[in-house]
Design goal:
The chain starts with a helix and ends with a helix. Helices cover 76% and strands 0% of the residues. It has 18 helices and no strands. The protein has one domain (3-221, 229-394). The chain is globular. By secondary structure, it is mainly alpha-helical. Helix 1 (3-20) packs across helix 10 (191-212) and helix 16 packs across helix 18 (372-394). It has helices at 3-20, 30-48, 51-79, 89-95, 97-110, 113-129, 133-145, 163-175, 179-186, 191-212, 234-274, 278-292, 297-312, 315-325, 331-341, 347-360, 362-370, 372-394. The chain crosses the membrane at residues 6-23, 30-48, 87-111, 167-187, 193-212, 241-266, 272-293, 334-355, 375-394. Keywords: Cell membrane, Membrane, Transmembrane, Transmembrane helix. Residues 10-82 form the Concentrative nucleoside transporter N-terminal domain.
């Protein structure tokens, strides 16, 4: 099958699966779905094929490389160059830079640069996605601030949101990733796929939400963002973001320790009982999805296994698995898989998002917990759609 045929098949599958979970199909506005898909395909081509797009990616990657270098100076001062000696490399070189990136985000947030960018891009997006400005702002702010920190900006209006709007807000947060963690991804995946995924996931989220959770934003109560740093001094804010960044790094490290150990234990147990490892069995479950995305038959099982690993653990565990087999995969398969992995769509994110919202508004946190599985379901469809568009463009 050609890449176009695989894309068409993937689009049909994603659409059917989204419609199966939709409770109000009459409210779906096909025009917005089509125009979002067209824009997304054009953006994918821009970032993955055009000279200007590749130049942008190269510049973006160079910027993060510089930032990681600055972050490394702080890490080396505290840990005495252990990372350069290969000691605790992943924690020191991949996770610790999150602290510095988080601090930069805090500064840009405090001096009103990020809020301005969020509002401008959010306003433009609201013109093409058929959703409200609040939902569009949330898509951009989730990308910059992260899936849990993002909701702090909405703390004063969470209680006024309808269930449908809460689903949109939470699904957007789960389907994107935080800029503070992008540098870590770039140490494990090709930068162009990371950058492409950031943009594609945003538009794929709008497409899937238009199918799985349609509603007219004009019928929703008009809500406005609050100011996140009222009454805080610069250094109060800076300390808050630095600690938040370190907290994220520690949480990711803890999750990795736990999930990698659990997967190793499950692999051993399943091998004894079934003669196949846990990841191999998961690979068979995701094999059809890998094939639909155009992954060659001889690679589909490995790719499906990594896709499943990301779902049941997190993207870091899956990316580490990719590094082990990247030489065995074709460039196209590696690109498709890389884009699929760049999102927070996994089981642990349900708890993270629900917990973050519950800390701000207990009722809405409980609402999000109730549709947690649907949240993960929709976000996984987002990843599949982004990967399918990547496969189409890569040919």
């Amino acid at each position: 099958m050609s890449s176009i045929a695989h894309f068409a098949l993937a689009l049909v599958v994603v659409t059917i699966l989204a419609l199966l979970a939709c409770r109000d199909r009459k409210s779906i506005r096909i025009r917005y779905v089509i125009q979002l898909l067209i824009i997304e395909i054009l953006l994918a081509y821009f970032f993955l094929h055009s000279e200007a797009g590749l130049g942008f990616v190269k510049g973006f990657a160079a910027l993060f490389d510089k930032l990681l270098g600055f972050a490394g100076q702080g890490t080396d001062f505290v840990f005495g160059g252990m990372g350069d000696k290969g000691l605790a490399f992943f924690f020191l070189k991949v996770l610790c830079p999150i602290v510095f990136i988080s601090a930069l985000i805090g500064i840009l947030q405090y001096i009103k640069v990020l809020p301005f960018i969020i509002r401008i891009i959010g306003t433009v997006l609201s013109k093409v996605n058929g959703m409200g400005k609040l939902e569009s702002f949330n898509a951009v702010s989730s990308l910059i601030l992260g899936q849990s920190e993002n909701f702090i900006a909405y703390k004063d209006i969470l209680g006024k949101m309808s269930e449908k709007r809460m689903y949109t807000m939470a699904a957007t947060a789960m389907s994107t990733v935080s800029m503070s963690i992008v540098g870590a991804y770039m140490t494990m995946l090709d930068a162009k796929y990371v950058v492409a995924a950031l943009v594609l996931n945003m538009f794929s989220t709008f497409v899937v939400l238009s199918l799985i959770n349609p509603y007219d934003a004009n019928n929703e109560e008009e809500l406005h963002l609050g100011n996140q740093h009222v009454g805080q001094s610069f250094f109060e804010m800076l300390g808050e973001y630095i600690l938040a960044g370190f907290k994220v790094a520690i949480i990711v490290a803890a999750m990795l320790i736990g999930f990698i150990a659990l997967i190793a234990a499950l692999n051993g147990l399943f091998s004894i009982i079934f003669g196949l490892s846990f990841q191999e069995i998961l690979g068979y479950f995701f094999y059809p999805f890998a094939w639909i995305l155009g992954i060659p038959t001889h690679e589909a099982l490995q790719v499906g296994s990594i896709m499943a690993t990301k779902l049941v653990s997190n993207e870091f565990v899956a990316m580490m698995e990719v590094q082990k087999i990247s030489a065995e995969l074709s460039p196209r398969s590696l690109g498709v898989l890389s884009v699929f992995l760049v999102s927070f769509a996994n089981f642990s994110s349900i708890g993270i998002i629900a917990g973050a919202i519950k800390g701000l508004n207990e009722h809405q946190g409980n609402v999000v917990s109730r549709f947690g599985l649907k949240l993960l379901y929709g976000s996984t469809l987002v990843s599949i759609l982004s990967a399918a568009i990547t496969g189409l463009v890569l040919g």
